[in-house]
Design brief:
The complex is a heterodimer of chains A (321) and B (270). Chain A is an all-alpha fold and 321 residues long. In chain A, 75% of the residues lie in helices and 2% in strands. Classes of the chains: A mainly alpha (321), B mainly alpha (270).
Chain lengths: 321, 270
């Protein structure tokens, strides 16, 4: 907005200078400017309006309604205002902190794993290879398949007689029930999550690495820098913006990710994988407590927006609207 | 020496790829096993199409595929014109409040679908929209619109404004400039947007599972999950269905993945 104004400033300036000359119907000019501004707004409404109509119908209106609803309690079709009681109930329920912890556990585990795996893959493929043309698109497949497909594939791998236990069979007498064991289920789900999302980091970080001028790395090599030093001192700082955008988007998507956990465990065993998104879904569609689910949604929304602020600020500065 | 080294790198790349794809390859391979896929893992077996025959003749998968196609196509048809127009607006128009509106678009990109499912459920019951595949498509369009707007705007920003100005001097209106001058040039970006919307919509489970309540209107993903609940032991058929369900998104995604980097990295340099 500010920038758009400053662009029009030269025009204003010329206008003001014109006033000192013999008057050329200043009122008419101003009217023309007002008309132009109005027609710009009209054009904006015509071009951008439809997209905002959809955003309002599918996102803004439901969110506002949801926030309002979270202060009410509904039973037998009658709504009563209960203030913060839904939120208090959630926080007092004992599940709140464990679910928050599980969400952090899941998000941190998946994020760190995806970032490291994605970075290693990007570093490996950041060279001229004849097979890259065929291999690189294939590497993205885990990310391209629907969540239900990757979840099914991993449930199959983790099953009692599945491939993983079969591979472990020479070392372990009988393989664990990965998804039924309270201690193993979260790590097991996190591994599947890392696998599913690492291609995104791979794609983005590789794109970043490829923008680094070769001379920069060559010069460091001549100065005797080792591989690790080049990575930490030159390559990573050079692509820090792409790392920032990728990480924040990845963090948000991971914290919100539903399919990868729900379709493997349903949040179980005994809520051991019930992150906030799973809790919302189960509260609404298993326990049919829509008021509490509304309050939970508000909590998740606030948490996500808090993580997202740095990303949004970064994007806003760079996008040149 | 150097050629041998190059060969070694290439072989390593293929191996890494195979390891990465193992869960999917395993699904694919075992889907050609009989219905009892367990048993000694590393023994040869005679491939059979029995699982696929079962899926096509004994399940609703084809019908659910059609449902998915309707919803995803609706999402694409709704979002492509709307997205392109908005992108033009952000790229070419000057008006008060533009930055704020554009900021709003960015915000929609990070809104968690799980936090929106509950209120959408209420909106859907208010509007009697349950089991309506077209309405589901509009919801998909909303969730994917930011990505498309960013992509097409990024593309338009790289087209010189002098193109528009020349056409305006020739007396064209904005719509004519857009339709005859810019539209042919942004077609690749618009096509990529169409594919992204379709593929993203095809991946959805959450929205379809809460906004579609009628089994005959299930999308393929919801159908697969409910099939897993009903036939827990028929892994052969489950795996075959998984393979079929992933085909459309895999084929379409592979063809446009390189555009994706441009969208997500957007204006952010290096």
């Amino acid at each position: 907005m500010l920038r758009a104004d400053s662009r029009e400033e030269p025009g204003l300036h010329a206008d003001q200078q014109a006033v000192t000359r013999p008057a050329v119907r200043p009122g008419g000019r101003r009217a023309a400017r007002v008309r132009r501004a109005a027609s710009n707004l009209g054009a904006a409404a015509a071009w951008i309006g439809p997209s905002y109509l959809i955003f309002i119908l599918i996102m803004a209106f439901p969110i506002v309604w949801n926030v309002v609803e979270s202060f009410f309690s509904t039973s037998y079709g009658k709504s009563t205002f209960v203030g913060l009681s839904n939120f208090r109930q959630i926080i007092d329920s004992g599940q709140f902190y464990s679910s928050l912890f599980l969400t952090l556990y899941w998000t941190a585990g998946v994020f760190i794993g995806q970032f490291i795996l994605g970075l290693l893959l990007a570093l490996f493929f950041n060279r001229q290879l004849w097979v890259s043309r065929f291999v690189r698109p294939l590497m993205l497949l885990p990310w391209a398949v629907p969540g239900i497909v990757s979840s099914t594939a991993w449930v199959f791998l983790y099953s009692q007689n599945g491939l993983i236990n079969e591979i472990l069979s020479p070392f372990v007498k009988s393989g664990p029930a990965w998804l039924a064991d309270p201690h193993l289920v979260m790590p097991a789900v996190i591994v599947a999550g890392i696998w599913k999302g690492a291609p995104f980091y791979f794609l983005m970080l590789l794109a970043g690495l490829q923008t680094i001028p070769a001379e920069l790395v060559e010069a460091a090599k001549l100065d005797g820098a080792g591989r690790l030093k080049i990575l930490v001192r030159i390559e990573l700082p050079y692509i820090r913006n792409i790392i920032a955008v990728t990480s924040v988007l990845g963090l948000i998507w991971t914290a919100n990710y539903f399919d990868g956990i729900y379709l493997m465990t349903g949040g179980g065993p005994i809520n051991d994988t019930t992150t906030l998104p799973i809790w919302i879904y189960n509260t609404a569609f298993s326990a049919f407590n829509l008021s509490e689910a509304a309050a939970l949604s508000v909590i998740l929304l606030v948490l996500v927006l808090l993580i997202a602020v740095p990303y949004l600020l970064l994007r806003r500065g760079d996008d040149d609207v | 020496m150097s050629r041998a080294k190059g060969l070694a790198w290439n072989i390593a790349a293929v191996l890494i790829c195979l390891i990465m794809l193992l869960p999917l390859l395993w699904t694919l391979v075992e889907s050609f096993h009989g219905s009892n896929v367990f048993g000694p893992v590393f023994t040869a077996f005679r491939p059979t199409l029995a699982n696929y025959r079962f899926v096509f003749t004994r399940t609703q998968l084809l019908h659910q595929f059609a449902n998915s196609f309707i919803a995803c196509l609706a999402a694409t048809v709704v979002s492509v014109p709307v997205t392109t127009m908005a992108a033009y607006g952000y790229s070419r128009l000057r008006f008060r409040g533009k930055r704020a509106l554009y900021f709003g678009v960015l915000v929609t990109q990070i809104l968690p679908a799980t936090a929106l499912v509950i209120p959408l459920y209420k909106v859907w019951s208010l509007g009697h929209l349950f089991n309506n595949l077209l309405a589901l498509g509009v919801a998909y369009a909303a969730f994917n619109m930011a990505l498309g707007i960013l992509l097409v705007k990024n593309f338009l920003d790289n087209l010189p404004v002098s193109l528009d100005e020349a056409a305006v001097l020739d007396g064209c209106s904005r719509w004519k400039v857009f339709w005859f001058v810019l539209r042919p040039l942004v077609t690749p970006a618009v096509a990529a947007t169409a594919v992204f919307v379709f593929v993203n919509a095809w991946q959805d489970y959450l929205l379809a599972s809460s906004l579609i309540t009628n089994a005959s209107d299930f999308t393929a993903n919801v159908g697969l999950y409910s099939f897993e609940g009903a036939f827990t032991t028929n892994w052969g058929a489950i795996l075959a269905t998984s393979v079929l369900v992933s085909l459309p998104s895999v084929v379409m995604f592979a063809s446009t993945q390189r555009y994706f980097v441009r969208v997500v990295s957007g204006g952010v340099k290096g």
